[in-house]
Design goal:
With about 230 residues, the protein is an alpha+beta fold. It has helices spanning about 20-30, 65-75, 85-110, 115-125, 130-150, 155-175, 190-200, 210-215, 215-230; strands at about 1-5, 35, 50-55, 60. Helices cover about 60% and strands about 5% of the residues. The longest helix has 28 residues, at about 85-110. It binds glutathione (GSH). Glutathione (GSH) binds near residues 18, 19 and 62.
Amino acid sequence: MIRVHQFAPAFGLPNASPFCMKLETWLRMAGLAFELVNDGNVLKAPKGKLPYIEDEGRVVADSHFIIEYLKTRYGDPLDADLGERDRALATAFQRLIEESLYWAVVHTRWVMDEGWQKTRVAFFGALPPPLRWLLPPLARRGLRAEMRGHGMGRHSEAEIFAIGCRDVDALADFLADKPFMLGEQPRSLDASAHAFLANLLWAPVDSPIQRHARARPELEAYCRRMKARFYP
Ligand SMILES: N[C@@H](CCC(=O)N[C@@H](CS)C(=O)NCC(=O)O)C(=O)O
């Protein structure tokens, strides 16, 4: 059985970590059996981040490499017949979602004071004292440093909002009236798009990026469609 190490569910979502929710969504889409281990222990994670999996004695970290491993090990029912153009589009949109939009949303959760109040409770509220008080400021400082390292954290707040809203528009315009990102069939890209968009639309963290996404009804309809099909 595939064991998925991830954070515990929060914000009323399968996971408040979009990378963890992406992997769970992909496993459901691929029809593989798995067991969730909601230990939230980044110290045991090979790359210091979640998710990672254990499968028959093998440990694999990072949602992208996990999915590549699982495709090789158990087959690729979602993307095997994708043409080169769609593969290129999937790669480009995945990077937009995970390397750009993600960091703009991290700003709304971990840097903006209003979002941080919600994030602190969702991620650390269940810890026993004194960890509940000691860990949050350390984690927040770590996230700020990561944001600067990535580059997003060097922009003004207005610039970060502009980047996030542009990413949202690109996703909504590309999805348009298609049922799934690449057409009639759900593909691996949809695991990523659904997890990150649901985290943006449905987490209780108000921001100009969230309001912008909520003004695009095709995104809400898309997330509801994915939820109904893969989280019945
Ligand atoms: N590229 C990684 C990113 C995973 C990631 O950023 N996970 C975050 C949660 S959304 C994490 O574990 N953060 C903990 C930390 O940075 O200490 C993947 O695709 O799995």
